[in-house]
Design a protein that fits this description.
Number of strands: 0
Shape: globular
Largest sheet: none
Distance between the termini: 23 Å
Helix content: over 70%
Structural class: mainly alpha
Order of helices and strands: HHHHHHHHHHHHHHH
Number of helices: 15
């Protein structure tokens, strides 16, 4: 448990620094002279360069372990964040963000793989994934507002430098606090899940249909659209501080559902489908300009995220052999990266003609429609998970 707590601490600090940039990046790019369509590329390139990093992370984490990639990713990201505060034009910002996307592509698969290895059984895995989501959400509750206040006090350059040194210090501490989990086999859980994946391979792992990854892709696409739209919602009248508060409201919503412990007992596929449907309906309401106040809508979006994210991670961990955690979570990161790349770009191109929130609704509903129906249950006597 000591390793788990250390890992949660480093995840908190890392995501605090990263989420603090959300309300800062768009106005920073505008101050450098970037047009809205180019801002979409600046935000999207970060996710595009995640892809080669994700591909390398999968096999690398399985082969060399999680610790070196956690440490190096944090330190490299801190150095690049410091450089980001000293760029002179939008093209330099684009270049720095592209490199940042590559080096941070190793962090999420490494953390998730290590957490999955530390679990005692499948229910414990679900709890650890929910804990990861809880820590992530706690960091994102205060970080957008904190980042916005930091910019208001010291300016963009000093704010990016301060956040960069925070990541470097966290990476240095991770070198001493993170311990690799010993190789072991998760304990047998006699309760069947509501997912019986495709036949097991020679290593004993089971596979989900590839169309399942359309859900995390659609989820990250919708979030990319939201993160692009919020700072531009009211044009110049929306301050950086107000934008930071809006981002924090989303995280508060996620915190509410993550704090509901009995959700861990609900089969993860059901949680994923229910959360994605609820999220799609909220985006449809935003596109139709429903009478629900914006803070309430953002709270509902956060609550849906709090259901979906840990459910996806728990589902993948429950049907994957320990030796392949790095690869399966790298595929998950690739799906997230693709969605986060296309989301802001599409929003920047269509916002003058169509509500980007309607695009988010269509993408989410399409992913749900393409999701294969629930698989037949595996008989408890023969179930391996």
């Amino acid at each position: 448990m000591k390793t788990v707590m250390w890992l949660y601490l480093f995840i908190f600090v890392a995501f605090f620094d990263l989420h603090a940039q959300f309300p800062m990046l768009t106005p920073y790019a505008v101050s450098l002279g970037a047009a809205p369509s180019f801002i979409g590329f600046i935000m999207g390139i970060y996710s595009l360069t995640h892809l080669p990093g994700n591909l390398l992370a999968g096999y690398s984490v399985d082969r060399f372990g999680s610790k070196p990639f956690i440490v190096l990713s944090l330190i490299a990201a801190g150095v690049l964040l410091i450089a980001q505060g000293h760029v002179a034009d939008p093209w330099q910002l684009l270049a720095v963000r592209s490199v940042s996307g590559f080096v941070l592509a190793f962090l999420s698969p490494a953390c998730l793989a290590l957490l999955a290895k530390l679990a005692k059984d499948r229910v414990h895995q679900s709890k650890l994934m929910s804990g990861n989501g809880l820590v992530h959400t706690l960091a994102s509750v205060v970080s957008p507002a904190a980042g916005a206040l930091l910019v208001a006090k010291v300016g963009f350059t000093t704010a990016f430098v301060a956040l960069g040194w925070g990541l470097i210090a966290t990476g240095a501490l991770a070198a001493f606090g993170v311990k690799e989990a010993p190789a072991k086999t998760a304990k047998h859980d006699p309760r069947p899940t509501n997912v019986a994946p495709a036949p097991a391979d020679s290593a004993g792992s089971k596979k989900l249909p590839w169309l399942f990854y359309g859900v995390p892709l659609a989820l990250s696409c919708s979030q990319g659209i939201l993160f692009f739209e919020l700072p531009l919602l009211s044009g110049s009248s929306t301050s950086v501080v107000e934008t930071g508060v809006l981002f924090s409201i989303v995280s508060v919503g996620a915190l509410i559902t993550l704090a509901i412990a009995f959700f861990n007992r609900v089969p993860p596929l059901r949680r994923t489908m229910f959360g994605a449907l609820a999220l799609a309906l909220v985006f449809f309401g935003l596109a139709m300009r429903w009478p629900v106040p914006l803070p309430v809508s953002l709270l509902l979006i956060g609550m849906a995220k709090g259901v979906i994210f840990p459910a996806i991670a728990a589902l993948l961990a429950s049907v994957t052999d320990q030796s392949k955690y790095g690869r399966v979570f790298s595929v998950l990161s690739i799906a997230f990266s693709l969605g986060a790349f296309f989301g802001p770009i599409v929003a920047g191109q269509v916002r003058d003609h169509l509500s980007p929130y309607y695009v988010a609704f269509v993408v989410l509903m399409t992913a749900l429609a393409l999701l294969p129906p629930p698989f037949k249950r595996t008989h408890p006597a023969s179930a391996k998970t």
